[in-house]
Amino acid sequence: MSLLKFIKDKEYDTEMISIMLQGRSEEGILEYAQVMNINTGDAKRIARGDKKLSEKIVDKRYSETGDKLDKVISEYQKGWDEIDEKFFKRLAELTKFPLAHKNYECVVSLFHPGISNWGGNKVARIWNKDFREQRRITAHELVITQFFSKMRSGYPDVPDQITWKLAEIYAFAITGLDPVLKSLWPWDKTGAYTDHNYPELVKSQKELTDIAIKDINEFIERGLSLLG
To answer: What pTM was estimated for this model as a whole?
Structure first.
């Protein structure tokens, strides 16, 4: 039985719209509104705290989607089940840290491309991808939550924003370059790509990627020296 279960969670989808919009700059709000396919005016209202509006938007989209989401969840699960055991075994090996949870959930979202809850056992993945090609980014989010668990155990005083930067860089590196993980999504030839949504990480990413592949503990020490 797979450690990762794909689920539907309407309340989580709703809650994360507000969380992901609040605190962003106006430019950031506009960008994420496009990602979620939400009217920019509505996104601004939600960012200011209009939770009822986000509930209304979610209700409408879930109603329009109907049973299609259940079919996608089933397909995503099938696509992941083929790699589940191998992925989690390799994740523990690479991070030199036992899995922090006995099981994990991935919310198949109608809004969010990918979310990790920073050490918890729940991630999210957008619903409109090929059931096999969704694997790498789903794995990316799981790497981030595992990385946070390791950091909070061994480096409890490091601020979350520093941990997040290191976690993203590490996830890009091992999902793109580790031979075992690469074999789980062989169609993806992009490696540790830098044309992602975090341009502020690219300079550090280029400096740290080779170290990330060699040894996570060395990567953390070098990363903290560079970013801390």
So the answer is: 0.95
